């Protein structure tokens, strides 16, 4: 019977059979079975003693081909490894928070983005890294998510980098508390500090131009190709004889 098994597994098979013969509780074991044509397949082998008049008369063996199950397990493992690789190498960080907002999982990309190793974050409230002025808004968002299973919310807030600086993050949070495979809030977030700084700089520049536009003594107007006035400053309105610039816009 040992010829059914490849040479490297025969000793293990013999040991397990001997255990059954000596009365140890029997259990299933996974082996490789060799077919007559030399091909192999994974199998579970169930063995139990055959007793006659209280005496051991032989062994009963059941071989269960588990090729399909092994293929499914391998495919699942490959899928999980690909997913893990995508998460760990993503430009985004991914966190899973429990119901009270404590970090249960953090992807390794968080260290590249925010300087914190994942194990430094796990077990810590997510709110500990949020700017004090943003806590109230974040609390309101998670209160909403808590009350609506499966709900998603997008938000921007300030996140503390390990170096102590505040970084703007853009985040999407989803309530998967009821999902047994997750059991928490899934939060994808990325550093958008440069974008926010650019937006702020643009707003400041536009405000400076607006102040100059309104304070200059000369009349200035912006006209489209159709000759319509899109914008005019107060000086331009006065020069044209109008009390309010709004009377000129669109003419």
TrEMBL record:
Gene3D superfamilies xrefs: PAS domain (3.30.450.20)
Catalytic activity: ATP + protein L-histidine = ADP + protein N-phospho-L-histidine
Sample GO molecular function, one term: protein histidine kinase activity
Domain (PAS) ranges: 79-134, 205-246
Record EC number: 2.7.13.3
Signal peptide positions (record): none
UniProt enzyme class: transferase
Domain PAC: 27-78, 153-204
InterPro entries named among the record's database cross-references: PAC, PAS, PAS-assoc_C, PAS-like_dom_sf, PAS_fold_3, Sensor_kinase/Photoreceptor
Keywords associated with the record: Kinase, Phosphoprotein, Transferase
Pfam families tied to this protein: PAS_3, PAS_8
Protein name (database record): histidine kinase
Source species of the chain: marine sediment metagenome
